[in-house]
């Protein structure tokens, strides 16, 4: 049992806050290209308990298994300590102070149900949760979209992960069972409910990723290079009519462009299919998105492909795809109504037997989770 806030700091917290992880239904690697995304909140959340201090010291405790089990500390304004999760806490206080919001020191206890490196946005959930707790404690005048934009700055400016805006937007404004259809160029968004008759399933492959590491950064740089060579400010400005020109670029830029252009079109088609309740159509879009990520964008790994192949063999699954940044993480599937739990269990079992990995089922939420 991890210690309570009272046991750690000798008094109760003043503020408690939560923020969810997310699953992206479709629209992968489109957000940093000004494109469309379609994430949805998941039931797993990050929780923060906080109490203000009279000095400038931040004392923080994480109940996460990979944390040290000690209270870690820094002084407001101090440079990165390079201590993993503490960097996010420092990043949040750093961007708030840089934006002119006055803070004092705080005590924090952080708990997360969103598995790290699972492609389900554990870090944006932490950023948004900390920002929400600080907003409440210091009565900061920030709306939910501003919270999301600050969350993105934590990642890009402080942690050094050059991510887009999808994950903090999902953690800040998305809901359960309702997709957030977001245009990352205009920042216009709309909520699109999941139609009846479908059970979303999420299985974490057990292969962890890290977006401040090289591959994600390389993909982003390839997109920027391709946009420059094609004379547009972002790949969002291209259509399928531009693909022959894009495919004439040197390898692999053309394929990267093809993924982004076709993925944007798939998001729009998915929104239509959701509205019509066209479940087989949704399934086909999921598989097409996965194939595009695997072949054109090259962000899948064999374990993730195995999960998608097992879904293809399962008569109760409409479609499946890698969700999130890739290079590991999770697969999202759409199963027939009422079959989600059974589908998730049998695919996870077959996957474990064939891969030697230890998958976890996030959705449908296992009872007792
Ligand atoms: C990660 C990033 F954080 C997002 O911004 C997005 O680019 C995603 O990978 C890929 O769609 O989750």
From TrEMBL:
The keyword Cell membrane does not apply. Residues 4-51 form the Galactokinase N-terminal domain. Residues 88-172 form the GHMP kinase N-terminal domain. The keyword Acetylation does not apply. It comes from the Bacteria. One of its GO terms (molecular function) is ATP binding. Its EC number is 2.7.1.6. InterPro entries: Galactokinase (IPR000705), Galactokinase_CS (IPR019741), GalKase_N (IPR019539), GHMP_kinase_C_dom (IPR013750), GHMP_kinase_C_sf (IPR036554), GHMP_kinase_N_dom (IPR006204), GHMP_knse_ATP-bd_CS (IPR006203), Mevalonate/galactokinase (IPR006206). Keywords: ATP-binding, Carbohydrate metabolism, Cytoplasm, Galactose metabolism, Kinase, Magnesium, Metal-binding, Nucleotide-binding, Transferase. SUPFAM superfamilies: GHMP Kinase, C-terminal domain, Ribosomal protein S5 domain 2-like. One of its GO terms (biological process) is galactose metabolic process. GO terms for cellular component: cytosol. Residues 271-352 form the GHMP kinase C-terminal domain. PANTHER family: GALACTOKINASE-RELATED (PTHR10457:SF7), MEVALONATE KINASE/GALACTOKINASE (PTHR10457). Belongs to the GHMP kinase family. GalK subfamily. This is Galactokinase. It comes from Cystobacter fuscus (strain ATCC 25194 / DSM 2262 / NBRC 100088 / M29).
């Amino acid at each position: 049992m991890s210690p309570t806030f009272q046991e750690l700091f000798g008094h109760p917290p003043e503020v408690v806050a939560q923020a969810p992880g997310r699953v992206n239904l479709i629209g992968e690697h489109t957000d940093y290209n000004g494109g469309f995304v379609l994430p949805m909140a998941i039931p797993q959340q990050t929780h923060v308990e906080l109490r203000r201090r009279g000095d400038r010291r931040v004392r923080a405790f994480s109940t996460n298994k990979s944390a040290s089990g000690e209270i870690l500390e820094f002084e407001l304004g101090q440079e990165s300590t390079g201590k993993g999760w503490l960097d996010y806490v420092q990043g949040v206080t750093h961007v708030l102070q840089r934006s002119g919001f006055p803070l004092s020191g705080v005590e924090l206890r952080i708990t997360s149900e969103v598995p790290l490196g699972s492609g389900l946005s554990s870090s944006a959930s932490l950023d948004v949760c900390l920002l929400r707790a600080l907003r409440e404690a210091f009565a900061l005048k920030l709306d939910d979209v501003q919270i999301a934009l600050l969350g993105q700055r934590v990642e890009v400016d402080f942690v050094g992960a050059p991510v887009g805006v999808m994950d903090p937007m999902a953690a800040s404004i998305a809901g359960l069972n309702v997709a957030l259809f977001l245009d990352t160029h205009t920042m216009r968004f709309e909520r699109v409910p999941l139609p009846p008759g479908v059970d979303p399933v999420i299985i974490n492959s057990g292969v962890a990723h890290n977006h401040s590491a090289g591959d994600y950064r390389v993909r982003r740089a390839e997109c920027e290079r391709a946009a420059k060579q094609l004379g547009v400010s972002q790949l969002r400005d291209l259509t399928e009519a531009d693909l022959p020109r894009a495919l004439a670029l040197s390898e692999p830029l053309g394929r990267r462009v093809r993924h982004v252009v076709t993925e944007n079109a798939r998001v729009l088609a998915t929104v239509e299919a959701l509205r019509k309740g066209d479940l087989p159509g949704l399934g086909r879009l999921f598989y097409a998105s996965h194939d595009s990520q695997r072949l054109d964008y090259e962000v899948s790994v064999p374990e993730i492909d195995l999960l998608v192949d097992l879904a293809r063999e399962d008569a109760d699954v409409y479609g499946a795809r890698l969700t999130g940044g890739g290079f590991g993480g999770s697969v999202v599937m759409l199963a027939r109504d009422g079959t989600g739990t059974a589908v998730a269990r049998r695919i996870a079992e077959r996957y474990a037997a064939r891969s030697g990995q230890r998958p976890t089922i996030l959705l449908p939420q296992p009872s007792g989770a």
